[in-house]
Amino acid sequence: MARLIWTLIGVCSLAGNLTFADSDVTTQGSVGCSEHEISAKAVSTRTDIQAFVRCAAEYLQEHGTEEARRAFNEDVRWKHGSIYVFVDGVAPSGEDSLTYVFPPDPSQEGSVWGTSIDSYGTDYFFELHRILSVVDSGWIYYAFTNPGTGRDEPKSSYVIEIDWDGERAAIGAGVYSPDLPGTCHDTEVNASMLDASPGADSLSQFVRCAATVLETKGYAALHELESGARWNNGSIYVFVTDTEGNQIMSGNRLKINGRTLNEWAGTRKDASRRPFLGRDIPGAAAVFGDVTIYYSAYNPSNWRRQGKIAMLRRVVADGIPLLLGAGYYISPGQDSMDYAPACAENRVSARAIRTERDVEAFVRCAYEFVMEVGPEAAREAFHEDKRWRHGQFYVFVTGLTPSGDDSISFVSPPDRDSEGTTWNSNPDVFGTDLFAEMYRVMDFVGAGWWYYSFRHPDTRIIEPKASYGIEIDWNGHPAVIGAGLYRSDLPGTCRPDEVNASVVEADPSLTGLADLVACATYQAESLGLFAGPVLSAHPRWLDGSTYIFGIDPITGVVKFSGSPSSYRVSGVIEEALFGGRKALQVALIFGESYWYYNFTNLSTGAVEPKIAYVRTTFMQGKPLLVGSGISAPGPAK
Fold it and tell me: How far is CA 348 from CA 52, 53, 158, 293, 357, in A?
């Protein structure tokens, strides 16, 4: 586990928006398998794991332990590669914890694990027991053998406490991520691998790992990213711009540093000849933090202009916000939907949408639904059925034309009266008609993302929105079927009236907690050394029992906090709160983590169960954990 030690001496990062928070404090009241059903084959992120484990828990409850054990070991729904369901007894030690289900080696079932001390300092089963003494479901972080590689690697698993034939047990599943701050190994994530096997997941991993290097090393990393063999191979290279789009570096031999529109060239004067038709893509990336973009550029391998899919990620290096990107070239007519799981493998209802990946699955299901029942029946369902409409989430269908002046609204649940009429030209805050951008994206890939500003159906305020769409035939008309997502925790949102301590205090949830910490992290990046006094005392960040804290992850010293009680455990956090578990190291390696422990409630003075969410950021080149917490309702016994 040398890479984990390497992380501790300085190479760690938030590496973007990794949030995998659920909307509820416990599993009770959260969406069930009927709202989000996903197979093992479709699981690729930590946001997928929660739905997978909930479905497994429901399957067990419905079918009983004998059938569940068989299914978890044999059925492809529950087992694919490194993704599988496990069930372990909840006990203070591996010496007492029985293995009930373990698909990688069913011969283990029925026996105890024995003492299992991993890289984070305590018996894994002691940590599982400790967590489930605070909550009835949550995340556990540990090192375990990856069946795909045979190596011990960091793994994050979601677990739910269950009854297994009268015994206390935990059902769970986990994921190994090669793009965490502590796992970005050069043999697993590099330009040659992306060049050989391009795709959305491998591109995201490559960009996240490159962002880690830039955030931890600052401008000193530019030469490595521009010239290093790991980051530059064949047609794959890294580029960095400022938030205005001026190129700072590029691994492409055709460099235009200091020019806009950065690495994709084009001309300043004639918007019609620019790759984005004048749209402010760097501005969108600065607002959203992460964007997928589609354009044409010269391929350094053959010097021909080709279509390209790239990612831009906001990174703060040496206190300055930058945009780091990379991409891969595509062949004419290549459709990005070809790589997406079918609805049968990842079915998401409107109520279950939490992330961008959920939006993709939701739109894929809507597309397949139209293919099955036809446009007219689908239109009625998109308006009336709860599966397709919940709050801000709904399916839209609009004509695919180069301008809103000609784009007909076919399905628009927030405004049914507008259906059958044209949208009209609709320039937004990023500078061009959003329908022209939709048309441009579909022309490249047939299924993809675009970023714009639009009126939120709940707040009626124009807010940043990211939508995913798929080209479709609608009664003989070329059209796009899609859905979008408004988020309050983006670098360019984080409005004080929407994200603040009083909101979390009044309505505690893991989603609200994660939003609060994300926005506090951006504040820390902006303010640097002045962040402590602001985050620990300003009313936006301190209300009742809700407060922000900052911890040095190397020493465990509390650098700032809105609660005086925090300083009592300064320097001894792991011993005092986590039974010796290296929770600070976990937060460094995973970039973020949930903590479950008992602590003094600032409002009542009583010691209560608590759930905290922490994220890693950098201030003056040094890592800092920024976090906050809410009271946990305790496990349902």
Answer: 12, 15, 19, 24, 10
**How is residue 503 written in tokens?**
């909101």
348 vs 351: CA distance, rounded Å: 8
Question: Cα dist. 282→76, 220, 226, 260, 279 in Å?
Answer: 42, 23, 20, 10, 9
Q: What's the confidence (pLDDT) of residue 635?
A: 61
252: Cα within 13 Å, side-chain hemisphere: 25
| Close Cβ partners of 83 (under 8 Å, ≥ 6 residues apart) | 40, 41, 43, 52, 173, 175
Distance CA 130, CA 596 (A): 8
Q: How far apart are CA 139 and CA 141, in angstroms?
A: 7
Structure tokens at 571: 């320097």
Question: For residues 568 and 572, what is the distance between their CA atoms, to the nearest angstrom?
Answer: 9
DSSP helix/strand/coil, 266: coil
- Given a contact cutoff of 8 angstroms between Cβ atoms, the answer to whether 337 and 204 are in contact is no
Give the CA radius of gyration of the chain: 24
Write the CB contacts of 465 (distance below 8 Å, at least 6 apart in sequence). Answer: 451, 452, 453, 454, 456, 484, 485, 486
pLDDT along the chain (637 residues), means of 10: 32 34 46 94 92 98 98 97 96 95 95 89 94 96 87 94 97 94 92 94 96 92 94 94 90 72 48 73 95 88 87 94 95 65 96 95 98 98 97 96 94 94 88 92 93 89 95 97 96 95 96 97 90 96 96 96 95 96 96 94 84 91 93 67
CA distances from 39 to 52, 79, 200, 487 (A): 7, 8, 19, 27
* 3-class SS string, 495-529: CCCCCCHHHHHHCCCHHHHHHHHHHHHHHHHHHHH
Cβ(11)–Cβ(216) below 8 Å: yes
DSSP secondary structure code for residue 235 in this structure? T
* CA dist., res. 30 & res. 158, Å (int): 14
Tell me how far apart the alpha carbons of residues 102 and 86 are, in angstroms, rounded to a whole number: 5
Q: At what angle do helices 356-373 and 375-384 cross, to 10 degrees?
A: 140
Q: How confident is the model at residue 70, as a pLDDT? A: 98
Residue 151: what are its φ and ψ, rounded to 5°? Answer: -105, 150
Confidence at residue 260, expressed as pLDDT on a 0 to 100 scale: 57
The sign of the dihedral angle between the CA atoms of 76, 80, 83, 87 is positive
What tokens appear for 215 in the block? 């955030």
Compute CA 542 distance to the chain's CA centroid, rounded to the nearest angstrom. Answer: 26
For residues 244 and 283, give the distance between their C-alpha atoms in angstroms, rounded to a whole number: 7
Q: Which residue shows structure tokens 């990688």?
A: 104
Give yes or no for a contact between 528 and 535, defined as CB atoms under 8 angstroms apart: no
d(CA 312, CA 321): 12
Token digits for 132? 């489930």
Q: How far apart are CA 8 and CA 277, in angstroms?
A: 44
CB 259 within 8 A of CB 247: yes
Q: Where are the beta strands (DSSP E) in 378-533?
A: 389-390, 393-394, 396-399, 409-411, 447-455, 462-474, 477-485
Give 296's strand partners: 307
Q: If residue 125 lies in a helix (H) or strand (E), which one and from where to where? A: helix 124-131
Q: Alpha-carbon distance 514 to 518, whole Å?
A: 6
Quick check: 375 and 474 in contact, CB under 8 A?
yes
